[in-house]
Write a structure and sequence with these properties.
With 264 residues, the chain is mainly α. 76% of the residues lie in helices and 0% in strands.
Length: 264
């Protein structure tokens, strides 16, 4: 059952018909913003950790450290929710959000200390650092492939403008003249336009592939793998059931004595 739900979630996040799908262009905007956001996340994480370690001798660094851990968790949750909104994935289940809620009736410091997990903190820190790296790499790849496709598409327009305004022929020493192919400018325009459309379609596919990689890196599908029943409800029902079975074991003959009593 869980495998079927995971497969359905993976299919729900995939993007088809990339050229006319708004998810594709939302992904492009996400990767354009990923570079400045990655720099901000990296700066906040490194600065916060450095200050918390440096201020530990005067006991200010201890609550600052837990605050940084809480902030890193918020950054990761924000990135996960943003990717879900772009891909059209549903919100996390109630049990997952229930596990993330701190206990009520405590001050902010106790809530941060009680909600701190070493493994989760290390994972969030590594995700923020990796988000900085992927923000640079993925944005460069996206800009390169999209610029290549748009460059071929707009080449005929640029050539016409340069010929009319500056009498500059950028296609004079093109590949066609090197191989002595006598093609007119209109034929070359059609070829460049077709190649540009194909490259632009491939570029959009590459962008959506990068989003799927980012989705796996940021553990976006993690909430869907959590149990559907909140753990508190399981703890409430478990003692009741155990008491019932213990009562059955302590009085095994009680249910058998009732028919005999009725006959008497």
């Amino acid at each position: 059952m869980k495998a079927t739900e995971a497969t359905a979630m993976a299919r729900a996040g995939k993007v088809n018909w990339v050229l006319f799908n708004p998810k594709t262009y939302a992904t492009i905007l996400y990767f354009l913003l990923s570079l400045p956001l990655g720099i901000i996340y990296f700066t906040v994480a490194i600065t916060g950790l450095a200050l918390s370690i440096g201020l530990t001798p005067i006991f200010i660094g201890i609550p600052l450290f837990f605050g940084v851990a809480k902030l890193l968790n918020g950054i990761v949750n924000f990135e996960q929710s943003m990717i879900r909104q772009i891909l059209g994935l549903p919100s996390p289940s109630v049990s997952y959000t229930y596990n993330q809620q701190p206990e009520a009736g405590q001050n902010w410091l106790k809530r941060m200390v009680s909600g701190f997990e070493g493994g989760l903190f290390i994972r969030n820190l590594l995700l923020v650092l990796l988000r900085f790296v992927t923000g640079i790499v993925f944005s460069v790849i996206m800009v390169t492939v999209i610029s290549l496709g748009l460059g071929f598409i707009t080449l005929p327009v640029v050539h016409i403008i340069l010929m009319n305004e500056l009498q500059l022929d950028i296609l004079e020493n093109s590949l066609f003249s090197y191989f002595h192919i006598d093609w007119t400018y209109n034929q070359q325009y059609l070829l460049y336009l077709g190649v540009g459309l194909i490259l632009f379609w491939v570029a959009l596919r590459v962008v959506n592939g990068l989003m799927q990689i980012q989705r796996r890196i940021m553990y976006v599908d993690e909430p869907y793998q959590q149990p559907s029943e909140p753990p508190m409800e399981a703890q409430i029902h478990a003692p009741v059931q155990s008491q019932y079975y213990e009562y059955q074991e302590d009085h095994p003959t009680q249910g058998m004595m009732q028919p005999a009593q009725r006959e008497l």
